[in-house]
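Lesson 9: reading folded outputs for more than one chain in a single document. The general rule is that every protein is listed as its sequence immediately followed by its structure tokens, and records are never interleaved. Here is the first one.
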Amino acid sequence: MRQKIASLLFGMIFLLIPATAVHAAQAIPEERQLPRLVDRADLLTEEEETALLEQLDEISERQQCDVAVVTVDGLDGKTSTAYADDFYDYNGYGYGPGDDGILLLISMEDRDWAITTYGSAIRAFTDAGLEYLVAQFRPDLSDGAYYEAFTCFAEQCDRFLTQAAEGAPFDEESLPKQFDPLWILISCAVGIFAAFLIVGLMKAQLKSVRRQDSAQGYIRPGGFHVTGGNELFLYRNVARVRRAESHSSGRSSTHSSSSGRSHGGSSGKF
């Protein structure tokens, strides 16, 4: 009887050990375990890694919000969103007590990208803001200019976090203005050409005008002469129109990760 009880207890302990080990392995660390740049797909040179990591660290510390970039060869059977969420959570990313941060994941196997946000970064990067953000770096990503894409991502994150700290985050009605340098040059060239054309036409119409020796020469004989003037201010009518207030939705979609925490973000192909 004692042997049966001992065997039963031993079996229960044996079953509990792996479960406890798995739970411990999936626990969220209190401190970040990896740098803010992890290039497992080896997309960057050593010089590029050093420069990008310095940029990410400087922005993260100044904004008090982790900004990270991770590249991998494959997703180990997960979706890009799940992989990004888990990488963020189980490697202890996030700044301060709120674990605030944003992480860009690149998987080369099927050319997937995913962005995960957590804490205050969920508010700072709205759905519309994330769409704009991705549109800035994805062309370089598709062209294989990975360093340029990642530095663009970091710069835009810095811009978004500054905007959120100063007031309302970038959203559908308040996205940054985009300027195409080519169109600026074309507009300037067209403006200069139009100015020369107009001045030339005006000059052609003034061929009959001749320079006079004195001011009297410019006065038409028998013309109207003003001998005096007096202005009297009688009324003032001021109309005040109330400015319509603009309300930004500030919508940031969220989802639950395998850790049970709520993340924001987006994903796609490049």
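And here is the second record, again sequence then tokens.
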Amino acid sequence: MKPFTVIDHLVSKSSFDLVLDKETTALKTTPELSEAELEHFYPKTGYASHDTQANGFKAKAYAWVKRINIKSKLKWIRQYATTGHMLDYGAGNGDFALAAQHEGWQVGVFETSPDATEILKQRQLLVVAQPLQENQYDVITLWHVFEHINRPEDALATFYKSLKPGGVLVLAVPNAASWDAKHYKSFWAAYDVPRHRWHYNKHAISLLGRKAGFELLNTKNMYWDAFYISLLSEQYRNAKAPWVNALCKGLFANLKGWQTTNTSSLTFFLQKPK
């Protein structure tokens, strides 16, 4: 597969290439930026995962879907663990962590963003620092965070050490092999370059997890993501009726990915052996 070019539609309008990593089949955003360089590619306001207020119809719709998703996420986790210590890594504004805490989990949160960290402290969540303690957590969650991490193998090794035996790592990532990724091509909003450093598929996550010592327990479709990503993608290509198109394309993407567990975003449940 030849590298192809994607534009940062959200902030800079700069171009980046996606290059196939032959070992994992994941795509890597190039050139590789340092953390300091990457800071300039985040919007000063309105990056969805860090917002605590929903202003405007699109933001309110996002917040409404997010609440539904949080309930689903906690239900999925209850299939593998019901109580104990949880780390929400890349916790954003802390909505998921607060919901888990309400269900009885002892929750720690981690964020690289100073602004997000301050929000988490204001919401009275337990902010943890790196390096993470070994054999500390029953569950570690990364909700659309893993694609932002530059060294995925190193991160997985850290999470493996931090989990107790039998602990579960939950990774939610955009699926670069989904129907909507193929349909929108360079306009697919979930590429989100350069903020997303890696672009995964089922094989890539399974391979990386296995190399780190994890067993893949399950993979879940994330149906709502297809609609949100389709809406952004339609707006990026200046569609005349983005909401209508997004509804149709999102529905079709979910139908295409439903039976094969290959929707716009996927959640993987990886277990450290007992």
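What the second record shows: The chain has one domain: 54-189+208-271.
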